[in-house]
Amino acid sequence: MHYQGIKIRGYIFTKEVFFVTREKTFTLVKSYKPFHSKFDPCPPIGRKYYRTPPNLYINFQPPNLEQFTPEEALKYGTLWKFFYDFYDNPYRERET
């Protein structure tokens, strides 16, 4: 599915990357590296990933957003297509 961006106060909000300033971009997938002590007997975990919902980056809901049908809204968990975020497990082995 392809969703168009929403323009609010001169900023363009798209589905995957939110262009807030010209230098900084925000994505829906974030990561961090957990602290690992040199005295910890277990091996380091590595990077951990988590997703943030798209509604965190919009101050208010613009009018006339495209909507799912009621059946699709129950399936996707939201009425508005812009706020739907597909979860892709970053830890799953990918088939090439």
Automatic annotation (TrEMBL):
InterPro entries: Spore_coat_CotJA (IPR020256). Pfam families: CotJA. This is Spore coat associated protein CotJA.
